[in-house]
Every structure is written in structure tokens, then in C-alpha cells.
Amino acid sequence: MPLAFCPWDDAAGGVAMSNSSYFSQQIERCLRLAQACSDSIVAERLRQIAAEFQQQADQLAERAMSSSAMSSPHAIASNGSAAGDSNHG
Questions:
Q1: Taking 80 as the threshold, does the pLDDT of residue 2 lie above it?
Q2: By CB neighbour count within 10 A (0-12 exposed, 13-18 middle, 19+ buried), where does 6 fall?
Q3: Which of 15, 70, 76, 86 is a good FRET partner for 45, with 20 to 30 A between their CA atoms?
Q4: Which residues constitute the domain of residue 52?
Q5: Can you give the three-state secondary structure of the chain, one letter per residue?
Q6: Residue 34: pLDDT over 50
Q7: What φ, ψ does residue 24 adopt, rounded to 5°?
Q8: CB-CB neighbours of 23 under 10 Å
Q9: Domain for residue 2, yes or no?
């Protein structure tokens, strides 16, 4: 069952969450609830939601790493030279 409102998804009308601690807190909360839950179906769904939050956190980290690499003056160009290096020979 997909979530009706995803706070990290701008397309869903939510506010983009750029704070990794948000995802960490939600992951911990879901796993804690799953462990305490006596209904195995609900517990499994909570673990799935935690995994979805983990995927979002991973994507956020990847975007942050790629954007910081692109903004770095020492980023490596696709030809292997340093960005801004005019010597291609």
C-alpha cells in the first residue's frame, strides 16, 4: 500500500526533507514499533516503511554527494582531468 503523503516528495505536495536526521528518526521509530507490534502483518509493513525511508535517505546522501562534487573546483571531469584544466593533451 503506497503512502498517501510523502513528506520528502515534492510531487506529492509535501515539503522536501533535506535533513538526514528526519529519515533516521523515522527509520528508528518504524523499527521500534515493528518490534513492539504483536500483529505480524503490521510489523512487516512497518519494516517495509523503514526500508523505504532508508532508500530515501540513501538517495538524499547520493544527491548531496554529487552536488558537492559538482560544486567543487577540484571535481574530476569525465575525461579524467581536473575540472577547469585546459590541458587535454
A1: no
A2: middle
A3: 15
A4: 19-60
A5: CCCCCCCCCHHHCCCCCCCHHHHHHHHHHHHHHHHHCCCHHHHHHHHHHHHHHHHHHHHHHHHHHHHHHHHCCCCECCCCCECCCCCCC
A6: yes
A7: -60, -45
A8: 22
A9: no
Task: Please check whether residue 72 lies inside any domain of the structure.
Answer: no
Structural domains in the chain (count): 1
In a domain, 30, yes or no: yes
CA distance 80 to 38: 55
Cell numbers given for 28: 528508528
- The label of the residue with cell 530515501 reads 56
Q: Are 2 and 45 in contact (CB under 8 A)?
A: no
If one compares 57 and 20, the residue with the highest pLDDT of the two is 57
User: Is 49 among the domain residues?
Assistant: yes
CA distance 25 to 57: 11
